[in-house]
Amino acid sequence: MNSAYHRRVAFPNELGISTSRQLQNTPSTQRPGLIVPVGSTEQHGPHLPLDTDTRIATAVSDVLAARLQACEDFSWMVAPAVAYGASGEHEGFSGTISIGTPALAELLVEFARSACRWAARLVFLNGHGGNVAALRDAAALLRYEGRDAAWCSCVARDSDAHAGHTETSVLLHISPEVVRQDELVPGNRAPLTDLMPAMRRGGVAAVSSLGVLGDPTTATAEDGGRIFAEMVDGCVERVRRWTPDREGMLR
Ligand SMILES: [Zn+2]
């Protein structure tokens, strides 16, 4: 699996396009779509790296592009990831770098205004729940301006909230070498709805000193493969259907 996204400095794709000239010479009817992974840089407990969400969004984007290529004429490229997001709830844990919702929304708007000068359409592939408000704001404005921009999140059924079974399993599948297996400790396993009032006041630190919501000790690579496939399948379906709502979310 792809675990080398951080070395990415260009647009990798199966179309063999790497230069501006190649894009320039593409007939306007064959302009590619652009998939933009959007992650975060935030604490993920003692066992997962700060770039966990960015890794997941990028890995899903790569497989999504390949799957879409295989099933239709329209071609897709994957952009280098936006690796910073809105992670205010993780402030207080070293390593977290949050740019907040307004700055992220503005970044996404300017990104898409620029990219849509040559890309036929654009989808932000989101790997972090805290980014949703910015994605909604940005996509609503972009669509109002007449740009064909949308977003969709990496989601799976029965996921736990943060650095627990779900994310740890997915990382064991896509980047096993970065999971610190000797640091797996159960976090706060209470339902998110119960934790929200305290979290609104004091962030994740108020409910888990470890920064873990869920239980990573049950994670397996096998389950990660299943969850990852579910994330990819959901995104393939929604991107193929391409029915964004008013705020650009693909249904
Ligand atoms: Zn995460």
UniProtKB/TrEMBL annotation:
InterPro entries: Creatininase-like_sf, Creatininase/forma_Hydrolase, MftE. GO terms for molecular function: hydrolase activity, acting on carbon-nitrogen (but not peptide) bonds, in linear amides; metal ion binding. Its cofactor is Zn(2+). Pfam families: Creatininase. GO terms for biological process: riboflavin biosynthetic process. The keyword Zinc applies. The keyword Lipid metabolism does not apply. Keywords: Hydrolase, Metal-binding, Zinc. Belongs to the creatininase superfamily. NCBIfam families: mycofact_creat. This is Putative mycofactocin system creatinine amidohydrolase family protein MftE. The lineage of its organism: Bacteria, Bacillati, Actinomycetota, Actinomycetes, Mycobacteriales. The gene is mftE.
